[in-house]
Amino acid sequence: MSGTASWGDTRQLTLTFMQQEQELIVWALGEGSFGDPEGLKLQIEQSVKGEGIRVEQTEPGETSYRLYLPFVT
């Protein structure tokens, strides 16, 4: 992840998994300092580019993202 943590700082990342129609949704919600939220979104997008995954920032300026993955049964 992005940002730096000093000794004793806590950063929490909560992941929620949901199925919606033909997609698996991974909702990542960060608490604490993860750095620039928009920059982190760009890093996530670059990491999954070409994999059929789309990224949505759910709250502008916050560390809250949804990743939509094709769901194959």
Helix proportion: 10-25%
| Sheet of most strands | 4 strands, antiparallel
Q: Which residue ranges are poorly predicted, with pLDDT under 50 across at least 5 consecutive positions?
A: none
Number of separate strands: 4
Percent strand equals 35-45%
How many separate helices? 1
- CA radius of gyration: 13 Å
Description of the molecule:
- The chain is an alpha+beta fold and 73 residues long.
- It has one helix at 37-48, and strands at 12-20, 23-31, 54-57, 64-70.
- The protein has a 4-stranded antiparallel β-sheet with strand order 1-2-4-3, covered by helices on one side.
- Strand 3 and strand 4 form a beta hairpin.
- It starts with 11 loop residues before the first strand and ends with a strand.
Defining traits:
single chain, 73 residues, alpha+beta, 4-stranded antiparallel β-sheet, 16% helix, 40% strand, globular
